[in-house]
Amino acid sequence: MYVLVKPSGTLTFRLDYRMNGRRETVTFGKYGPAGLSLARARELCIDAKRAISEGRSPAIEKQREKRRLLEAKSFGEFGEKWLTAAPMADSTRAMRRSIIERELLTKWRNRLLTEITPR
Description:
single chain, alpha+beta, Double Stranded RNA Binding Domain
């Protein structure tokens, strides 16, 4: 695991590995108050190394998870997938879940994502 420092000053945690003779890179996220802590990045790195040893590519799994979020058909499905997959503290997850269920899902649960526009 290493940290990529961009010219803007952004610090990003990454891991390079080889899978089937090909070099791959998985990005865990940005460091900072709104991003990852070093401890959380280490946990993600350990999980990624475990997946590599089992023959699974963490980068491909991350892409698949993003596609699953995008493939959700209704607002309710998308909200549930986001709440379970997004990296956040348990207390934050509980707070957001209660707000979503109380304020949004009562009216938006069965609306198709394609029907929802900024207007």
